[in-house]
Amino acid sequence: MSKSILLIGCNGQVGTQLRKTLQPYSHLIPVARPVVELAQPETLRDKILQHQPEIIINAAAYTSVDKAESEPELANTVNAIASKVLAEEAEKLGALLIHISTDYVFDGKSSCPYQENDSTNPLSVYGKTKLAGEQAIRLNCRNHLILRTAWVYGTAGKSNFVKTMLRLGAQKSELKIVADQIGSPTRAKDIAQTIGLLISKNPWENGTYHYTNSGVASWYDFAVAIFEEARLLNFPLKIERVIPISTSEYPTAATRPSYSVLNCAKISGLTPSYPPHWRQSLREMLQEFRQSSNS
């Protein structure tokens, strides 16, 4: 594959992995703040015009779920208005726009995994602005691929649930973790590799897709698994007990869906294998993280 790809948000969890995945077989143009600033969407137009890419990947977003409740305008600018600008410019070029979205566009009232065409009903400012970004892309760019994912973690980036648990687990003997929110932990590297596979297909498969690791867990399940796997790798841990609690016992500014498992059957029909189980991907991520910490 030899495609000109403009990667926005190249230093984030998924963006860092996309740089590694796409670099060997594409003309990759990685950009991040302050070169591009999604909080000033109009500045994106000049950057896109300068490079005239065949593919634009938007791996950047306003992702501070709770903070978005007090910064709705900024969240909307980054997640919705910037997405509209990217869609308009991609349409002008005839470029493919790949956009990463979220399980938070759903309200969590389902009892079975969400399919791509299920009704959306976000509960938070973050979810609402991400949904608005999706809608702007569908309206303004015919050649698009929206990839909804969930509970993303990886070795890159400043913070994610896995890194937070490792940090707290090294400091505290006891932690209370929410056990009544259910989803699918998903490794950033798996998302990046899947996007690479989709890009390699020609013609591209336009539309909306769900991608997460397979299997389901609560945040409590995820935390317990992190500590079990981390102990096997000799991470420094003080933690002795993880206590399951309800969402009501851990109030947050933003309301989160209690069930946000995504049905990945559609995208699995385009890839050689079904998404790996979240526990397997967690183990591999921790091994990689441990090696990088020791080097």
Description:
- The longest helix has 22 residues, at 72-93.
- The chain has a domain at 4-159 and 186-215 and 261-276: Rossmann fold (3-Layer(aba) Sandwich), CATH 3.40.50.720.
- Strand 1, helix 1 (13-22) and strand 2 form a beta-alpha-beta unit.
- The chain is 39% helix and 17% strand.
- It is globular, with a radius of gyration of 19 Å.
- A six-stranded parallel sheet has the order 2-1-3-4-5-10, sandwiched between helices. A two-stranded parallel ribbon has the order 6-9. A two-stranded parallel ribbon has the order 7-12.
- It is an alpha/beta fold and 295 residues long.
- It is built from nine helices and twelve strands.
- The two termini are 33 Å apart.
- It has helices spanning 13-22, 43-51, 72-93, 125-140, 161-171, 188-200, 219-232, 265-268, 278-294, and strands spanning 4-8, 27-31, 55-58, 96-102, 144-149, 152-153, 174-178, 182-183, 186-187, 207-210, 217-218, 241-245.
